[in-house]
């Protein structure tokens, strides 16, 4: 692979996920921490209006807006703020899929779910991020177009998810962890650019297979909560007939699948609107080939 | 010891969920009780569940125009209707009509108000002051009969301050605050705890109404003395986070020179007060707007006189 010259770090793609927002603001005031000798790092705030209001988004989720449909649509009046913003970001750090696009983009997120620290990559075929030493969640469903902000940069995408942290809150411990992981990832890019050979390896990663919706009343209101035995058990095995929901009257609802799966984003605040209780994943082992720069 | 007190039995009790539209335990509990009111039934009084701020609940935000739970003051309640006033001012006047009027003989006898916090405060009970006898006895009863977790008492009203919360519309009130829970999320464990504590409190009212004599007692409670603001840059942005050593340490002693903040560059800021205090609402999401990092409290022991209901002949 060619060396990485232009790297961006985005905080505040969602305006209420505070670790990345305060980190990006900190780096904008004091960029020295991000400096490396072989490449430039540009911090930026993803969704300024959402950050100002401290909400996830103003019109629509910015992190679902980087598809061909939105990026190549012609400007019209009254389109959602995030569609206009996505086109601007695509101009600055892309265009997506072109030779001029930034080489790499980090995107910093938090979750209210108990997921610890995870690196989210689109698929195992993205070699560079797979080499970064961090537990990995592969988010792209087969056949699906990439839609996230870091898909604007060249193939080789990374995103961090730290939790649990409530929306609108910054915890100093998670802030420090996020900053240290970015530092580690930048060190990796520096080594890569300077010609280090990274040997092949085998790695375990979690791959999304679908989503589990909340049960609902006929009027569409959710009728049950994540079961206490499932709460905070992200990335632990969920077996057939394990309890997954508890109704407001106290009854249990069991998992009816046939195989063991690994849930994540259990009880993520932002997914209530979509009535999604958790994401279902399978655990795989991938063989990742060796990597070095051209 | 002070003489025992007699109060009239309670007949009208209200339970409010969703005073803040993104604090989900109370919202889902109130919705559950509105679908299925049997759980709240007691023989000696009526219980009315309701949703405090419907528009904020619909949008899943704390409030739409202004904080409903700061709007029950004389200034807002007796102001004349004008165009373009905040939604919550109109709403507060309607709630005051239905469950008050505040300070009158027609007001509801008791109102529970259900809240969550993003701070690690466990389960605690909020009363305006130690002079509110019935709520203090209710708290004592809850502490003795709900043993799953300690339920410390937080006295929120500063001396000389007017009451402003939704449950000040009723003759007496109690707020429950459970955390940590992120905004917009309902955790089943906290939901169950909140429901069980309300059941316990309703049992207390039933016993009180039926003539039980509750003896005098001594009780520890935390009383607010002030607030600690975040340090800020000249442009007004906060310049530090709650220190990791203070994070999640609600109700534990904070001593002079203990670390309280950590700047974004990693430097420590120490507590400069002269005495040990007890912090609460550490890193509460809703307080960032006000730049408040935590609330400062002192621990006191109060003597509460005996209580029983007066029987109308």
Automatic annotation (TrEMBL), chain A:
Which residues does the entry assign to the active site, renumbered to this chain?
160
* Compartment(s) of residence: Apical cell membrane; Cytoplasm
| InterPro entries, A to Z | AspA/AstE_fam, Aspartoacylase, AstE_AspA_cat, Aste_AspA_hybrid_dom
The Succinylglutamate desuccinylase/Aspartoacylase catalytic domain, residue ranges: 7-189
Chain ranges of the AstE/AspA barrel-sandwich hybrid domain = 202-283
Q: Which cofactor does it need?
A: Zn(2+)
Instruction: State the free-text cofactor note.
Output: Binds 1 zinc ion per subunit.
Q: Does the keyword Nuclease apply?
A: no
Name the chemical reaction catalysed here.
an N-acyl-aromatic L-alpha-amino acid + H2O = an aromatic L-alpha-amino acid + a carboxylate; an N-acetyl-L-cysteine-S-conjugate + H2O = an S-substituted L-cysteine + acetate
Cellular component, GO annotation? apical plasma membrane; cytosol
The entry's Zn(2+)-binding residues are 14, 17, 109
Q: Which GO terms describe its molecular function?
A: aminoacylase activity; hydrolase activity, acting on ester bonds; metal ion binding
- EC numbers listed for it are 3.5.1.114
The similarity annotation says: Belongs to the AspA/AstE family. Aspartoacylase subfamily.
Q: What is this protein called?
A: N-acyl-aromatic-L-amino acid amidohydrolase
Q: Which organism is it from?
A: Gopherus agassizii
TrEMBL record, chain B:
Q: Which residues form the Succinylglutamate desuccinylase/Aspartoacylase catalytic domain?
A: 13-205
**Which superkingdom heads the taxonomic lineage of this protein's source?**
Eukaryota
Give the reaction(s) catalysed: an N-acyl-aromatic L-alpha-amino acid + H2O = an aromatic L-alpha-amino acid + a carboxylate; an N-acetyl-L-cysteine-S-conjugate + H2O = an S-substituted L-cysteine + acetate
Q: Which SUPFAM superfamilies match?
A: Zn-dependent exopeptidases (SSF53187)
InterPro entries tied to this protein:
AspA/AstE_fam, Aspartoacylase, AstE_AspA_cat, Aste_AspA_hybrid_dom
Q: Where would I find the AstE/AspA barrel-sandwich hybrid domain in this sequence?
A: 218-299
**Is ATP-binding given among the entry's keywords?**
no
What is one GO cellular-component annotation here?
cytosol
Q: Which UniProt keywords apply?
A: Cell membrane, Cytoplasm, Hydrolase, Membrane, Metal-binding, Zinc
Spell out the subcellular localization from the entry: Apical cell membrane; Cytoplasm
**Single GO molecular function:** metal ion binding
HAMAP family from the xrefs?
Aspartoacylase
Needed cofactors, names only, are: Zn(2+)
- PANTHER family from the UniProt entry: ASPARTOACYLASE (PTHR15162), N-ACYL-AROMATIC-L-AMINO ACID AMIDOHYDROLASE (CARBOXYLATE-FORMING) (PTHR15162:SF5)
Protein's UniProt name: N-acyl-aromatic-L-amino acid amidohydrolase
Q: Which organism is it from?
A: Gopherus agassizii
What's its membrane topology? Peripheral membrane protein
């Amino acid at each position: 692979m060619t060396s990485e010259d232009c790297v961006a770090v985005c905080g505040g793609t969602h305006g209420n996920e505070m670790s990345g927002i305060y980190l990006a603001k900190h780096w904008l005031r004091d960029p020295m921490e991000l400096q490396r000798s072989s490449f430039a790092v540009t911090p930026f705030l993803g969704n300024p209006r959402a950050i100002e209001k401290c909400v996830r988004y103003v019109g629509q989720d910015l992190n679902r807006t980087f598809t061909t449909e939105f990026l190549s649509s012609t400007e019209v009046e009254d389109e959602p703020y995030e569609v206009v913003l996505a086109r601007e970001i695509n101009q600055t750090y892309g265009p997506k899929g072109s030779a001029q696009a930034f080489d790499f983009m980090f995107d910093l997120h938090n979750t209210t779910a108990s997921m610890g620290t995870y690196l989210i990559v689109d698929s195992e075929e993205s070699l560079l991020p797979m080499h970064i030493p961090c537990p990995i969640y592969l988010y792209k469903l087969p056949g699906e177009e990439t839609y996230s902000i870091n898909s604007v940069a060249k193939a080789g995408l990374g995103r961090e998810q730290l939790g649990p942290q409530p929306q609108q809150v910054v915890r100093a411990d998670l802030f420090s962890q996020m900053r240290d992981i970015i530092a580690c990832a930048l060190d990796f890019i520096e080594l890569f650019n300077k010609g280090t050979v990274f040997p092949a390896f085998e790695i375990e990663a979690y791959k999304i297979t679908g989503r589990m919706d909340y049960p609902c009343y006929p009027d569409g209101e959710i009728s049950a909560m994540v079961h206490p035995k499932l709460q905070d058990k992200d990335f632990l095995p969920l077996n057939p007939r394990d309890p997954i929901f508890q109704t407001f009257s106290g009854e249990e609802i069991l998992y009816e699948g046939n195989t063991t799966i690994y849930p994540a984003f259990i009880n993520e605040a932002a997914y209530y609107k979509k009535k999604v209780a958790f994401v279902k994943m399978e655990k795989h082992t991938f063989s990742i080939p060796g990597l070095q720069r051209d």
